[in-house]
Amino acid sequence: MEKIDLTNNSHFEVLLENEEARFYASLHFDHTPGFDGPVPNVEQVHCYMLEPNQGSLNFVLQYDPSNYLYFPTRDFPKIDSLVLDELNLAIKNHLENLR
Length: 99
Description:
Low-confidence stretches: none
Structural class: alpha+beta
Distance between the termini: 13 Å
Shape: globular
Number of helices: 1
Order of helices and strands: EEEEEH
Mean pLDDT: 84
Number of strands: 5
Number of domains: 1
Strand content: over 45%
Strand order of the largest sheet: 1-2-3-4-5
Radius of gyration: 14 Å
């Protein structure tokens, strides 16, 4: 994955919707130590999602370079595949808008 400067753009929100409700996810790229302070890392995205059936969820999405997609880390319960698709599309669009 190419290097993108996320210094002032590491957080964004995504509006989600299913048959039952509208809800949102708050996404924040992981930060790693750098010479001038923390540097955003596009390999991991921390997510807070207020999901109508499961409630308040905190999880991490890890980038899989072989699929060009983000997936929840193994320690998190299943996320609906349509919601995961929407999150991946939102991340992709956010990164493309920063180029």
